[in-house]
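Both lines are given unchanged directly below:

***
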Amino acid sequence: MGTQVVDSANPVEYLVHATGDWAVYFLVGVLWLSPLRIWLGKRSGFSWIKRMQSHRRNIGLASAFYAALHFTLHVLDNPEWEILWKDLQRVYLLTGFLAFLILLLLALTSSNVMVRKLGANRWKNLHRLVYFAVILAATHLFLNEKSSDLQALILFVPLIAAEFLRFGFWCYGYCQKKR
């Protein structure tokens, strides 16, 4: 990454995009952990998935950190408030900003202290906003003219399919319990 920054015509713009990419990679990665645990967790040779579950908070915090860095670099690249206000009126930047706010909220409430303060059920419901954040991040990526649609498709289509399958497994298990 270091030599690419030096070789780039606009190093700050390169860093804005690189940090945004890493925020999305960590966000998608943390959301892949549950479907992988459901599908592969009981098979031999996949015990690493269970171990990764204990690192979900750190991976989520990494996503929030890179999103904050992405936003900060964007502000530093466009320091005038008028430009920033006009930027927020563009749909792709508004979706990215809303995703950042959600990730910031989730990062601020990710500690054990906040789980106790909010109560487990309210905390869990609040942290389900991550699904809305990933939809906003996908929209941000799809609408960004400088991003590759192929990159967005590779990241988000399998994730959406995995989440639908996970929801299907949950529904199947829930229906089996009712009988």
Q: What stands out?
A: Residues 11-40 form the longest helix (30 residues).
